Amino acid sequence: MIKKTILLACLVLTINVFAQENVPKNDGVKTISSNYTVVTNAEIHVSPTQVIENGTMVIKDGKIVSIGNNVSIPKNAVVTDLSGKSVYPSFIDLYSTFGVEKPKRSGSNSRTPQYDAEREGHYWNDHIRAEQNAIDKFSYNTKEAEKLIAAGFGVVNTHIEDGIIRGTGTLVALNSEGSNANRILSTKSAQFLGTSKSATSRQSYPNSIMGSFALLRQVNMDAKWYQTGTAKEKDRSLEAFNANKNLVQIIEAGSKMNALRLDKIGDQFNTQYVFVGGGDEYEYIKEIKATNGSFILPVNFPDAYDMENPFLANSVDLADLREWNQKPHNPKILAENNVTFALSTYKLKDAKEFMPNLLKAIEAGLPKDKALAALTTIPAQILGKSNEIGSLQTGAYANFLVTSGDIFDKETTLFQNWVAGTKNELKPLNQKDIRGDYTFNLGNTDYELSIKGKIEKLKSQVKADNKTLGSKISFDEDWMNLTFSTVDTIKQEFIRLVANIENTSAFSGKAIFPNGNESTFFATKKTDSKAADDKNEKDDDDKEAGDDDKNEEKGEKSDKDAVANTDKLFPVTFPNMAYGFETLPKQETILFKNVTVWTNEKEGILKNTDVLIKDGKISKIGQNLSTNNAQVINGEGKHLTSGIIDEHAHIATSSVNESGHNSTAEVTQEDVINPEDISIYRNLAGGVTSIQILHGSANPIGGRSAVIKLKWGESADNLLYKDMPKFIKFALGENVKQSNWGDVETVRFPQTRMGVEQVYTDYFQRAKEYDAKKKSGQTYRKDVEMEVIAEILNKERFISCHSYVQSEINMLMKVAEKFDFNINTFTHILEGYKVADKMKAHGVGGSTFSDWWAYKYEVNDAIPFNAAIMHNAGVTVAINSDDSEMSRRLNQEAAKSVKYGNISEEEAWEFVTLNPAKLLHIDDRVGSIKVGKDADVVLWNDHPMSIYAKAEKTIIDGITYFDIDRDKKLREAIKKEKNELTTLMLQAKNKGLKTKPIEKKEKAHFHCDSEF
Q1: Counting Cβ atoms within 10 Å, is residue 623 exposed (0-12), middle (13-18) or buried (19+)?
Q2: pLDDT tens string 774-828
Q3: What are 628-642's pLDDT values in tens digits?
Q4: 353/441 same-domain check
Q5: d(CA 365, CA 371)
Q6: Distance (Å, rounded) from C-alpha 92 to C-alpha 166?
Q7: CA-CA distance, 500 to 479, in Å (whole number)?
């Protein structure tokens, strides 16, 4: 029985041994190494918070077997003594395309738009590619791997950078030996997403950022519906998307605003994204923290501008100057606010740029332990791989760096990068370290020699007789060559030293003088060199920078320069640009005394009247008002009005048109509000307090509107009206039938005005049937587009329609009446005067231009009496802008109706205040000065419709967002700050920092037809 047991054990052991080799070998006899690898006597950084002094680490089969101070070294071990060296975990890059070729479009290069998907059995949109797996496209790139290894990376998380949903990524060890089977740590490490379209498809939709957001929402809804099993056709994309939902979701945001926008989508579907940031998160740090998301930060900090040309320099925006100063501080600010982040090489042209840029962030205040965590433990934690990578613990992969010292010291040398127990030697480990301060004597002259820099790239400084002498040093295979100028610098003569260095504390060699004579020298290392180095380093920086420029090759920059100009952080404002607030303004109690009040109510214009604003509302109107703790403003000779409201604007947005389909009701301007648009501030200076941000006129059924208050400095969400009625943009005319889009835009329906009518009829009928099915309780696929159009039929959403020609205006009113609802507003409506009676009967308002005409064929019949004729027919009339420049001068646009239409001043003023409020269904809140309404008011220094009138104060909800006196002070402060930043950039260039040329930037002025 005992013999049988022994025999069985031997058999099992034999099977286990042979089970390790499952591939036949045809290259002769092979010996499998079972040796251990041991590194000892090192300062081992197990993690950012745990360090083992004089530690030992035992490695076998690519993993760490044991680690600590009292570790037994196996007999069959290859031992490396790392005395004086440091060991760190290798870095992890969470966002990479390593080994995956950039996708390219195949097939036709036709310019004709493509509206349908190319693939069968997949999602209806080609840019949803959840079924892709990076592992299927992966091929190890030795050349790129070497660059990453030299930068300290041992693991990368790679993916296919293609599409809005890109499929799964692959976690790869940068192991130079073995096959992909040994390198792949996870075949499906995460699901990757973005906001840009697939490079391999020409499908038009989406062609805007708001279209991408809408598509992400619809995919999530469709995936949930697909799980019910009611779909008639198989969809590989949705199946893969559902299968990948439990993976880490990494989404490329690219900016702080997109991160906040995408977070709202994630919250809607109970998904916490890991955001690939844009480096500007510090500007919205409070909101960024509130996402509870983790971030992957590129360290592609901007170069300074070349500011030598004063005329060009003056054209650079303050925001762009600040960006250079502030972006290196981004990691520190996130760390201070406990936002989880990892660092990445993403957006860098070459991996060798990574460490110099990271040193900028550390110089700017990022703690070194946080930097190390962002490259090791945090990426491992995000991927759920903390037991395998990111730290040097028992059982983890032996991914580690061997350095000469602190990994984040600019003078530290990276000797080795081990990946899965395989050594990658970057610099000779046994190279002597001759850095330090020395003294020697030549010809009765005492010299001081300071050697600094990295071991492989030394820098020297020689001093004598209180003079710093130009010098250059090289050190190779124990031989030092040093050349320095003589004390008599006028003659430009040099002394050369050569020495074979065996002992770094003292060495001797040969000195060759300018006349050819030779002598010996003996250099002794100062015992207090470290202290002296610390003391003198700051004083010597400027001088060293100059020496470095002389000594280094053209085009290179010194390590010292690489972290210059980051110590002073210029303050972040709200928004972080010119005219931003240092702190957001607060609600105030304000009493206007003896002012002329344009009430827009039955009281009309009140002279010498007091108005009290309290708690964000209009509290009292009368004479001889008084209150405690109010800011009293003398209004003698001045006018107080309600804030101007622009019914039709395209400011404060990142995108205007989604033209990929003829109906895009699923997109919304609320997704793309841009609170940093300078037009907000300019509009405040023109007395504007509210606007409707409308979708453009690319399609018959456009996107949903955003109605906002111009709260300069607030976040996008805080600009939105709360509990706001819902609006959507429709359009008629040339734009929607693409008659002015070019010769290739001829395949999208509709191409005629008849076709436009049919689009409306078809979509309303579809929405009617959709709504009936939804209300019946049947299982249905939730379609955001149909939901929105059904809201119109249910009179829960209102239409603002871009319009010109009377025939089309009549057509849409008839279509609406057929489906039992009314059009809310015809905007533009330059032929409204022809159908004013029909508009009155239908109950639709008209928002028009005051005097625009003849800018295209369909406005040839426009007249400046249009607004007055519609108004006199009983139509609610507003004057709108559709233009950022006109928007801030609507007070003057209103006056034109007095000139052309003989409208009273009060009626004309209502065209830009109360009437647009009525059209937007917010006249119970704004549009007039009435007790209980929102304190959205403007103080003018003159008659509000005068061309000489200036808005002195623009107040929203009792908060002053524009003050003309503050504006004057800001102009001086902006000038001063730009000069300070310009000086720093000039200094940076003088020190050898890389600079970039100033490029002309033109602000986009959006209109209805922008982006197509």
Answers
A1: exposed
A2: 999 999 999 999 999 999 999 999 999 999 999 999 999 999 999 999 999 999 9
A3: 899 999 999 999 999
A4: no
A5: 10
A6: 21
A7: 5
Q: At what angle do helices 753-776 and 784-793 cross, to 10 degrees?
A: 90
From 512, 543, 561, give the residue that closes a domain: 561
Q: Which 8-state DSSP code applies to residue 70?
A: S
Residue 77 forms beta bridges with which residues? 36
**What is the separation of C-alpha 679 from the centre of its chain, rounded to a whole number of angstroms?**
21
Angle at 782 between CA 776 and CA 786, to 5 degrees: 85
For helices 964-990 and 318-326, the axis angle rounded to 10 degrees is 50
Q: Do residues 308 and 286 make contact, with C-beta atoms less than 8 angstroms apart?
A: no
pTM given for the model? 0.91
Q: Are residues 147 and 191 in the same domain?
A: yes
550 to each of 121, 458, 471, 476, 545, how far by Cα in Å? Answer: 64, 14, 9, 21, 9
Strand order in the sheet with 273-276: 165-168, 190-193, 248-252, 273-276, 294-298, 341-344
Preceding peptide of 575 cis, ω within 30°: yes
What's the rounded Cα separation, in Å, for the pair 950 and 919?
27
Contact of 434 with 480, CB cutoff 8 Å? yes
Report in angstroms the alpha-carbon separations of 162 from 96, 115, 168, 188, 903: 12, 19, 11, 16, 58
Q: Which helix or strand (DSSP H or E) is residue 728 part of?
A: strand 726-731
Q: In this structure, are 684 and 755 located in the same domain?
A: yes
Residue 7 pLDDT exceeds 50: no
Among residues 541, 581, 582, which one has the least CA distance to residue 564? 541
In a domain, 659, yes or no: yes
**Coil, strand or helix: which one is 843?**
coil
Tokens linked to 964: 């003309």
- Tell me the residue length of the chain: 1012
Inter-CA distances, 301 with 359, 408, 577, Å: 11, 17, 18
- What Rg value do the Cα atoms of the chain yield, rounded? 35
Tokens of 3: 């013999």
Residues 541 and 658 in one domain: no
Q: Which residues contact 276 (CB under 8 A, 6 or more apart)?
A: 95, 250, 251, 252, 253, 254, 295, 296, 298, 344, 346
Do 354 and 225 share a structural domain?
yes
Query: CA 449 to CA 400: how far, in whole Å?
Result: 35
Which of these, 132, 127, 147, 130, lies nearest to 101 by C-alpha position? 132
Residue 182, both tokens: 């040994």
Residues 300 and 442 in one domain: no
Give just the sign of the alpha carbon dihedral 587, 590, 592, 597: positive
Q: Which two tokens stand for residue 174?
A: 């940068």
- Strand partners of residue 423: 418
Q: Are residues 139 and 241 both part of a single domain?
A: yes
Q: Among 71, 23, 27, 64, which Cα is nearest to 46's?
A: 64
Asked whether residue 339 falls in the same domain as residue 272, the answer is: yes
- Domain holding 496, by residue range, is 436-561
The verdict on residue 8 lying in a domain is: no
Contact 272/246 with Cβ under 8 angstroms?
A: no
3-state secondary structure of 818: helix
Last residue of some domain: 926, 943, 969?
A: 926
In a domain, 996, yes or no: no
Q: What is the number of structural domains in the chain?
A: 3
CATH number at residue 919: 3.20.20.140
Q: What is the CATH number of the domain that holds 532?
A: 2.40.128.120
Question: What 8-state DSSP symbol labels residue 574?
Answer: B
For residue 400, is it within any domain? yes
Which residues, in sequence order, are bridge partners of residue 802? Answer: 731, 827
Contact 158, 169 (CB under 8 A): yes
Q: What are the helix (H) ranges across 913-1003?
A: 914-919, 964-990
Q: How far apart are CA 625 and CA 609, in angstroms?
A: 9
Q: Which helix (H) or strand (E) holds 6?
A: helix 2-19
pLDDT in tens, 537-596: 444 444 443 444 333 333 334 444 444 455 689 999 999 999 999 999 999 999 999 999
